[in-house]
Amino acid sequence: MIDIHGYTALSATTPLAPFTFSRREVGRQDVLIDIHYCGV
């Protein structure tokens, strides 16, 4: 499994907070994108 670290708002009225979840391993027909920066 791949641990994913990011930020999420759990409802429309809460601020962004750190969030971690697991994804399955990358398969033969998947694309893995490594994002270093994102402007939101």
Account of the 3D structure:
This protein has 40 residues and is mostly beta strands. It is built from no helices and two strands. A two-stranded antiparallel sheet has the order 1-2. Strand 1 (2-8) and strand 2 form a beta hairpin. The protein starts with a strand and ends in a 17-residue tail after the last strand. The mean pLDDT is 91.
List strands and helices in order, with pairings:
Elements: E1 2-8, E2 17-23
Antiparallel strand pairs: 1-2
- Average pLDDT, rounded to a whole number, is 91
Structural class of the secondary structure composition?
Answer: mainly beta
Count every helix, treating DSSP H or I runs of 4 or more residues as helices. Answer: 0
Strand content: 35-45%
> Measured on Cα atoms, how large is the radius of gyration?
13 Å
Biggest β-sheet strands, sense, barrel:
2 strands, antiparallel
Envelope shape: elongated
Report the uncertain regions.
none
Helix content: under 10%
Distance between the first and last residues' Cα: 27 Å
* Count of strand segments: 2
Characterize the quaternary organization of these chains.
Answer: single chain
Sequence of strands across the biggest β-sheet: 1-2
Quick recap:
The protein is mainly beta and 40 residues long. The protein is built from no helices and two strands. The protein has strands at residues 2-8, 17-23.
Features:
2 strands, 40 residues, two-stranded antiparallel ribbon, 0% helix, mainly beta
